[in-house]
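Lab notebook: predicted structure, single chain.

Context: the supervisor wants predicted structures on file for every construct in the current expression panel, including those that have not yet been purified. This is the next one on the list. No modifications to the sequence; it matches the entry in the shared construct table.
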Amino acid sequence: MINKESKKTNESNNLLYGLSLGHGVKHFGQGALLLMAPSLKNTLSLTEVALGGIFTAQSITSGIANIPAGVLSDIYRKRIAWILFFSMIIVGAGYILLGLSSWYWMCVTATAMLGFGTSLWHAPAFGTLAARYPDKKGFALAMHLSGAQIGNTLSPIIIGFLLGGTFLGWYFGGWDWKFISIGLSVPMIITAILVLVFFKSAGAEVKKNPSFEEYIKGFKQIITNPQVLGMIFLGACRGAVHTAFQLFLVLHMKENLEYSNFNVGLHVALITLAGIVSTPIMGNISDKIGRKPVIAFSMGMMSIIIFMFIFFDSGFYMTLLVGVLGIFFFSVMPTITAAAMDQVPNGIEGSGTALMFSGLAIIGSVSPLAAGAIYERYFFEGVVYYSGTIALIATLLSLIMPMKKNIS
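Prediction complete. Output recorded below exactly as produced.
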């Protein structure tokens, strides 16, 4: 009996770590796109608004993908592995198309595929983990995001080096960004196959799929729940800050500070490096003391640190700020998601996750365009004010929003 229980626990842990690793591979590709943005901009002679438009297309299709991902994840729980498989295949195909792109709208189509494919991962993965670990949602979702942060940390360092630059006095001419883009399809396709082979147990925690009537009833519950809607808005605010600030920080370092690709990559890696450790810690704390203190503190610190870039927009102190921002920048998202999932009925965790990321995508899709227009007129300082203000508003809202931990 003990051996059976131990085997069940190991399988459950393997699923957690395996999905987290796959999430890391997916985010490795997303981080690569960010580093390639200045090269893409120069190749196609794009304005800042046009570049923001590419990331907007990615965000829009990301939001669209959440709708079928959530429904399929809940109604076909025994086919979670197949949904994750197609998620990575679409991402791989998107990178191939991006590498072959020679005109703007082809790039838009490619990044739209990337947005759609990456979002197909969230609902089945987050929903499965929330159902598999009902008493440790914060920790499980945080571990999953830590995998993403490992990918986000390694990607800018590796891609920045491959794009070329100087490191410890050694110069490397770099590879063409299109070649790198096509190469990124390889780990995506390999991950897709591995998920299908090793994680067929995903979704096994649900004894039976909900009927269509049960699903509609549960879905109505979550879309009329003030806490769920509030967390969707908070998650969207965090996403708006992320998509705007990170993109134009990269552009600021590359065009204004004239940093090498590798140096830019190191700074982008710093944004997520500290979060690898802080994310599971914050998730675990939120399981014990509640979601509100963790969310309010994290968003508040994020707003303070971003506003400090007004005074320190270059040199050592900017680098230090980037590293400290990494403690809070991504780590708050799984706690926000867990706060929403606390109110989601059993069996429709996928749709709850999908709603979270849909809100992020809808508001996040406008953010790069708005930030691009601000950057063209007010430069990086304008983007700092824009991002910091959104983070401050989210902080104030988090203090008054209801965040009950237990569902009825």
